[in-house]
Write a structure and sequence with these properties.
By secondary structure, the chain is of the alpha+beta class. It is built from 3 helices and 3 strands, in the order αββαβα. The chain starts with a helix and ends with a helix.
Length: about 90
């Protein structure tokens, strides 16, 4: 099931036109923790987008959360973000 939620996350992030996007399901590391589900609820996301250029981390995260808003309310309990502009990713 976590493959399905990862694909849904990837679809929702499409407006950011990611040059690189890695979604890792960390749910197993949080078994027994509040909000844990065995169908994927804790994720790490590394995303590279030109839309992040010149933005502070908080604004980058807001762009991601805007794309995933409804999933954050229903399916995703925790999301660790690494958001990079293309020049940061290259170096």
């Amino acid at each position: 099931m976590s493959g399905a939620i990862r694909e849904l996350i990837r679809q929702r992030l499409a407006p950011l036109q990611a040059l690189h996007c890695v979604i890792e399901d960390d749910s197993a590391q949080h078994a027994g923790h509040g909000g844990w589900r065995d169908d994927g609820s804790h994720f790490s996301l590394t995303i590279v987008s030109a839309q992040f250029a010149g933005l502070m981390r908080v604004k980058r995260h807001r762009l991601v959360y805007d794309c995933l808003h409804d999933l954050m309310q229903e399916r995703i309990h925790a999301l660790a973000l690494t958001t990079l502009a293309p020049d940061e990713w290259q170096s």
